[in-house]
Amino acid sequence: MVPQLCEGLELLGEYQGSGSVVRKFLLRRGDGQVIQVSQLLYLVAGSVDGARDAEAISHRVSGRYGQEVSAEDVVFLVERKLTPMGVTLPSAGGGGAAPRSDLLLALKGHRVVFGERWVARIAAALRWLHSPLIVALVLVAAVVMDGWLFGVHGGITAVLQVLEQPLWMLVLFVLTVASLVFHEFGHASACHYSGAVPGKIGCGIFLIWPSMYTDVTDVYRVGRAGRLRTGLGGVYFNVIFMLVLTGLYLVTGQPLFLAAVYLAHFEVLEQLMPLVRLDGYYILGDLAGVPDLYGKVKPILMSLLPGRRREAAALLGLKRSARTVVTVWVAVMVPLLLAEVGYVLWNLPRLVATAARALAAQVSGTFEAFADLQVWAGLVGVVGTLMLLCPMAGGCYLAGRILVRVWRAGLRATEGRPVMRLAVAGAVVAVCAVLGVAWVRGLTPKPLPAAAPVTPVLQPGVPAPHPAPTTSTASPSPTPSHPSRRPALPPSRRPATVPSSAASSPAPASSSPATVSRTPSASPTRTHPTPDPSGSSPTPSVTGTPPTGSPSPSPSTSTSPTRSPSPSGTSPSLPGPPGRGGT
Questions:
Q1: CB of 390 closer than 8 Å to CB of 209
Q2: Are 188 and 198 in contact (CB under 8 A)?
Q3: Which residue, 140, 189, 344, 579, is most buried by CB atoms nearer than 10 A?
Q4: How far apart are alpha carbons 109 and 575 in whole angstroms?
């Protein structure tokens, strides 16, 4: 037997800073998939050159491994381990496609935006920003910036000013996208500075949102410090971007730049959350020396069961420090994810009804714009429709994948155990029955009333709702001691109602019209004399009619940028590099 390596296979060496008890080594296939293997498998793969047979490989491996490895052992390892992982070619020729990881909370639908050549050039040009002196200056400047923004100027002030200008909203969106792209080059330049080779930058769908990613898989062959620098590189470049925007505000005085700085802070906080595969997830994994934290959830949960602790500890194979970090992460992450799933299921009718209503109004308004030959408004409406469809389609896709995975996991866990399978099926039916009764009887929260368009330019033809004005009854004469004995007035002589924001005290008949309190949901009202039932001089009261047109709300926006850390090449052992960024 003369084994052959698959084309493009690379040996990356030992995984530095690993949290495992035994040493781990890395292989990278030609398709970019990174595989974590034991020292013995790594030595066998490194001894395969297409000319040595199993006997020659066994002698070479035995000398380097320090233990006797027979030719039969080599054949077993090649056929049962390396070939199924796509490291060596099948001895009979042909064979199926090499297995790839299919991570649930990972990026899907990769599309390249910047090729490897462009990424390498730009990363090399920006690597000087990661020198220790520059990093120290940037951090000091960031502290000064935040102290001034939140302690002196006020962070939300600029956002409120921008919400009144639709054009500024569009520019703010462009600045947010630019910040995300710059974020990805932070990962790439940090990878280059650490001695690794950054890959391509692209985009895809992370959970339900369009996101960007950076392929920095090569950083796994450098030390822990390099991986941490690469993981923090994106957030670090966000800080640099915020400093540049603050400088532009000081030069131009435009609040638009400060609004972008304010929103960028939320992007940084989101990136640092370690629950899903964002920057914080990979940073925590690098600190613990565990590339795939989600791969350790099952052993950790098994260790909590009586009689399964030894089996789970052997399956984990982690050092005590790494096991502590992973256990705390699982204890926090699993309840939060379960609570999130339960919250979504309980509010599912509300979500579906709101999404259907918004999509129907958006499509109808866009169609009417095209029918009225308003081409520009129709095209902008199409953009708004896509912005609504993207999270809806992503949510349906994610829900389908979760259901399929849960179904398969349940079948595997209850295989050969009919009693357990029946119990699990009964629990699922009970949960579905409770949710169904709650949905049908309306026990779950009701959908919110239709809100005014926050970005009217993206929602052509979508009318704004008419909120009911809040009123309170005011009497121009003193309240009698016995209100129940007050004679009823004919409709034409009853005192009018005044809004709660107006003054309750009567004004002289000769005074000018009362001052109107402006609110976004009511149109200005005027005054007219109202006869007093006692025959005294008329007093003005404020009346008004519901607005005949749609109010002009102040546009607002909320951005929830999400990031996709998974590159195109990951493995069951290594989920991929910490490249992230998104829109």
A1: yes
A2: yes
A3: 579
A4: 16
- Strand, coil or helix: 439: helix
Q: Per residue in 263-307, pLDDT tens? A: 888 888 888 888 777 888 889 988 888 888 887 887 888 777 776
The dihedral built from the CA positions of residue 109, 408, 572 and 560, taken in this order, carries a sign that is positive
Q: How far apart are CA 269 and CA 235, in angstroms?
A: 9
CA distance 532 to 291: 81
Identify the CA nearest to 498 among candidates 532, 540, 468, 549: 540
Q: CA-CA distance, 485 to 564, in Å (whole number)?
A: 72
Sheet holding 209-214, edge to edge: 107-114, 201-206, 209-214
Tell whether the torsion through CA atoms of 316, 318, 324 and 325 is positive or negative. Answer: negative
pLDDT band at 120 (very low <50, low <70, confident <90, very high): very high
Per-residue three-class SS string for 525-541? CEEEEECCCCCCCCEEE
Judged against a pLDDT cut of 50, whether residue 385 lies above it is answered with: yes
| Secondary structure (3-state) at 497 | strand
The amino acid occupying position 60 is R
C-alpha to C-alpha distance for 223 and 135, rounded to whole angstroms: 20
Residue 328: how many other CB atoms lie within 10 Å: 13
Cα dihedral angle (57, 58, 60, 64), rounded to 10 degrees? 130
Distance CA 98, CA 81 (A): 12
Residue from 57, 202, 99 nearest 573 by CA: 99
DSSP E strands, 331-466: none
Please give the model's pTM, rounded to 2 decimal places: 0.63
Greater model confidence, 390 or 312: 390
Both structure tokens of 91: 């001895």
Burial of 369 (0-12, 13-18, 19+ CB in 10 A): buried
Sign of CA dihedral 58, 64, 68, 69: negative
Res 107: pLDDT: 65
DSSP helix/strand/coil, 282: helix
